[in-house]
Design a protein that fits this description.
The protein is α+β, with helices and mostly antiparallel strands and 218 residues long. The protein has five helices and eleven strands, in the order βαββββαββαααββββ. A hairpin with a 5-residue loop joins β2 and β3. α4 crosses α5. The radius of gyration is 19 Å and the shape is elongated.
Length: 218
Amino acid sequence: MSYIFPTADRTVAPAGFTPAPTDFEHPPTDPVPWAMQWIDEAMRLPTPNPNSSYLATTSADGRPSVRTVLLRNFNADGAVFFTNRQSDKGHDIDATHRAALLMHWDHIDRQLIIQGAVTCTTDAESDAYFAQRPRDSQVNAWASDQSRPVSGIEAMRERQKQAFARFEGKTVPRPPHWGGYRIALERIEFWQGYAFRFHDRLAFTRAGSGWSVTRLMP
């Protein structure tokens, strides 16, 4: 089973939508279906980009960075996002092969935190997702050297113009430097907010073929 996020329209929660209660007193032995339930409920919220996630990485010399990415797939194998692999995040992942991902949903006062080793998705996975992107986004992936300096917006527009001319009337292939990353589910934390900062937290950590679970203070 896999939760694949839509690339365009999504379901909007009906009026009065309330997520199913989560029983922190009797946690499951496998947190993945529970995480997928949380994600599915979040995707029905009346908020833009409910699959937006904060991705934290560390450079080779220990400098932390965080930015927003869109989670595109989630299943037992990990959490997947796509990007320019020559970006700062790509260089960090190449150096450490680890990352953390935080999803936060104000409407239901929940957070989901994932930590683990990072691997590249296959070329077939990256090709399949790239083919679903709007054509303008495909071309812009060629136009931008993500995270690199640029003299100004006009210089960026000129690069964009050149990229559109290059692919006029052609299918836009996936750039060789563009693709997906998969964060392994080594640790998953469920955070449920309550009044006056008295939150509830459960952390699942991989233990062999199973999971260990720890209740955490707010």
